[in-house]
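[Discussion] Sanity-checking designs against the backbone

I'm trying to build intuition for which residues belong where. Below is a structure token string of 395 positions. I'd appreciate it if someone posts a full sequence so I can compare it with mine line by line.
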């Protein structure tokens, strides 16, 4: 129990440290401003998609009411009124204006992907054509989910079979009212799972989505109480008070989003919280090469990280880059890591030459990774050590 509590405290500490190290508060501020600029273009594009659905005149209004009643912790009517006025001007735009509109909404997703990939320490983003497909998919999927959620809610609320469903659900007549929570959860899950340009385990994405959804719901309630009880912004800005409050709300939403991204990263590749001692880089490389060699189909990066129970001195992404750069492993199109060398013929001396790292000092953290003969070789003087290490392979 004590060990679990210690690891939990270390995990939370590592999460907070990573949150500030990755400048998530600055990223949230930048995304809040970008969202404010891209909101009207994005709504115009999504409403344009919805308009292609049959009999969606009423549904379009329901979608907007749904968004501003469940996901905006402010005077949703005022914001909705202004956004509708802006969106109504879209048909009057020229072709160049429409292209600029779509580009502005696409820019939001490009910036979002860039921020997420930096948190995941992914060196490269998706290709532009893949990013464009992802944008089109999101623009079509989100309105469809909105309409589906509204349709299901309306059906359950009015259906003659609803009383029987209520009885089956232990009399919970407000079950359909929980659909916004479910929708928010799946929205967070999809973004956490799909957006990083690397493999994200579904379990990590689901846990992060649940935490983010709970934080979102709690923050919304607190922010509503705050805006009703504090009149400072109304006194200072008057009728314009909605704008700074809306900007603050966007900032809080993005803070929650980046907490979720950091959490999904820590659950997948986090290692700092596992132990006080850290495994040296050379032993770290040896262990990873052995793990990959033992797996005929190769291993993903998250599977490699979870093989060890200790923290690393070298970050997993840096170790991956070093091993790939030394041409010891390669990554397949399925993001699995496979060997490029035969461990039975590859000596410790060859590894030392390829990586150029200092040899390890044997201690209780790395002792279990070597045999007694290999430990003895590491403890010899420099020239003797290198000569002796040529006799031992990594297998």
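Best answer:
Here's mine. Compare freely.
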């Amino acid at each position: 129990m004590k060990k679990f509590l210690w690891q939990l405290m270390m995990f939370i500490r590592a999460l907070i440290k990573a949150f500030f190290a990755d400048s998530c508060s600055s990223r949230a501020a930048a995304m809040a401003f970008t969202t404010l600029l891209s909101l009207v273009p994005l709504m115009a594009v999504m409403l344009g998609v919805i308009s292609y659905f049959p009999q969606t005149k009423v549904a379009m209004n329901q979608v907007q009411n749904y968004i501003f009643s469940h996901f905006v912790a402010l005077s949703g009517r005022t914001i909705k009124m202004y956004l509708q006025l802006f969106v109504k001007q879209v048909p009057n735009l020229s072709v160049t204006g429409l292209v600029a509109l779509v580009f502005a909404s696409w820019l939001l997703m490009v910036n979002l992907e860039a921020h997420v990939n930096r948190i995941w320490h992914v060196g490269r983003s998706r290709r532009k054509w893949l990013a464009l497909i992802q944008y089109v998919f999101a623009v079509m999927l989100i309105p469809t989910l909105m309409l589906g959620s509204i349709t299901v809610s309306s059906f359950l609320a009015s259906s003659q079979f609803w009383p029987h469903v209520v009885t089956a659900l232990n009399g919970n007549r407000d079950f359909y009212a929980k659909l916004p929570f479910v929708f928010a959860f799946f929205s967070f899950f999809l973004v956490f799972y799909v957006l990083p340009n690397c493999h994200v385990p579904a379990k990590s994405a689901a846990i992060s989505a649940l935490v983010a959804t709970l934080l979102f719901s709690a923050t919304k309630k607190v922010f509503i109480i705050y805006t009703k009880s504090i009149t400072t912004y109304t006194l200072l800005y008057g009728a314009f008070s909605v704008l700074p409050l809306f900007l603050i709300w966007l900032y809080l939403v993005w803070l929650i989003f980046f907490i979720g991204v950091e959490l999904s990263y820590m659950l997948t590749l986090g290692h700092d919280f596992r132990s006080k001692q850290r495994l040296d880089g050379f032993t770290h490389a040896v262990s990873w090469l052995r793990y990959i060699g033992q797996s005929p189909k190769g291993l993903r990066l998250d599977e490699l990280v979870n093989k060890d129970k200790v923290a690393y001195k070298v970050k997993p992404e840096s170790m991956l880059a070093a091993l790939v750069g030394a041409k010891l492993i390669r990554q397949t199109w399925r993001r699995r890591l496979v060997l490029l060398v035969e461990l039975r013929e590859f000596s410790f001396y060859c590894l030392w030459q390829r990586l150029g790292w200092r040899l390890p000092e044997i201690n209780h953290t790395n002792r279990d990774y070597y045999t007694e003969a290999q430990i003895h070789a590491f403890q010899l003087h420099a020239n003797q050590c290198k000569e002796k290490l040529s006799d031992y392979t990594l297998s």
